[in-house]
Amino acid sequence: MSWAFLRDLLSGVNKYSTGIGRIWVAVVFMFRLLVYVAAAENIWKYEHDEFECNIKQPGCENVCFDHFFPVSHIRLWALQLIMVSTPSLLVVFHVAYRQNREKQHNQKLYRNPGNIDGGLLCTYLISLILKTGLEIVFLVLFYKLYNGFKIPHLVKCDVKPCPNTVDCYISKPTEKMIFLCFLVATSCLCIVLNLSELSYLIFKYSIKYYLKRHVKKQQ
């Protein structure tokens, strides 16, 4: 799968971000996207083929694998990367709208179309709230689907057509566990960065608005 579109999106967002926002882009690009492409994708590549049960009953391994892994970790991680990056498009589209508006009117309507102020500030705040919400939703989804953030060495399956309770073994559980912990840690870091940026912007523009009103009253 080509991730060039996501790389280009993150590069575009970086132009209009605050300092904290640029750190978020760096974390997503370096510690999530690159790790996914360079290493994690290969670890889960043959997870179904390497899932083994101590019985050769036709269909037993398939239903057991589907029971314990209804969605592949790596596919869910890929979906998470795409979903948490998508709200940033709102900011890119808003800046593009400002630039297009200036071209249509053939005059300077904004000091800088990429400045975070006015309507663009609202769009930026909405994108931060959406990114934070999606990160939390995916963490909860991971926890619910796999009964916690862990990869067991052995699972016991009694789903039909298995004739009795059978032992099934997951390939490379320790290695997968390390990457799963890394995934959870980077997701939590991104949540902290998003909340920090949200608090910073609200505080900054609240003070700015208060000072502006205070000056008007003095005048």
Characterize the structure shown.
Residues 42-75 form the Connexin N-terminal domain. One of its GO terms (molecular function) is gap junction channel activity. It is elongated, with a radius of gyration of 23 Å. The longest helix is centred in the C-terminal third of the chain and has 46 residues, at 173-218. α2 runs antiparallel to α4 and α4 runs antiparallel to α6 (118-145). The protein is built from seven helices and three strands. It has helices at residues 4-14, 19-43, 60-68, 73-85, 88-105, 118-145, 173-218; strands at residues 52-53, 154-157, 166-169. The protein has one domain: Gap junction channel protein cysteine-rich domain (de novo design (two linked rop proteins), Up-down Bundle). Strands 1-3-2 form a three-stranded antiparallel sheet, covered by helices on one side. The chain is mostly helical and 219 residues long.
Please describe the topology of this protein.
Layout: H1 4-14, H2 19-43, E1 52-53, H3 60-68, H4 73-85, H5 88-105, H6 118-145, E2 154-157, E3 166-169, H7 173-218
Antiparallel strand pairs: 1-3, 2-3
Helix pairs in contact: 1-2, 1-5, 2-4, 2-7, 4-6, 5-6, 6-7
